[in-house]
Amino acid sequence: MGAAIRASSKKISVFMLTVLFLVIILGSLMYLIEKGENGFTSIPDSVYWAIVTITTVGYGDISPVTPLGKFVASLIMLLGYGIIAVPTGIITTEVTLAMRKRDQKNEVCPGCGKEGHDLDAEYCKWCGTKL
């Protein structure tokens, strides 16, 4: 599991940086849409609202009042569900790849030159040559 997390750390870092930019943009957008009268009194407060909404799929301390604000909030909540899935998929893929490598031997086939055969293989799975 540790190897999978290390292997996926760059992908997850890029993903998290993207989410950071996304909440800054969405929070600023909500500040412009909702104005100060509806609780969105500053851009930092609006960004905080976007973080709470995208991570907990809820409104948090303040909630939008305008129809456009409610629509954007709905999109942010749906985006929050998708964001949960991405890192899970990245790490799951890395775990699967690590398990496949562990279950294969590095012996090169004398016939076709490919490697990655099963540990108990006596013949190449690509060309049939005896290993």
TrEMBL record:
Gene Ontology CC: voltage-gated potassium channel complex
Protein's cellular compartments: Membrane
GO terms (BP aspect): action potential
Highest taxon above the source species: Bacteria
Organism annotation: Paraflavisolibacter caeni
Protein name: Potassium channel family protein
Membrane spanning stretches: 12-33, 71-92
Membrane topology qualifier: Multi-pass membrane protein
InterPro entries linked to this entry: K_chnl_dom, VG_K_chnl
Main location class: membrane
Presence of keyword Membrane: yes
One GO MF term attached to the UniProt entry: voltage-gated potassium channel activity
Domain Potassium channel: 19-93
Keywords from the UniProt entry: Ion channel, Ion transport, Membrane, Transmembrane, Transmembrane helix, Transport
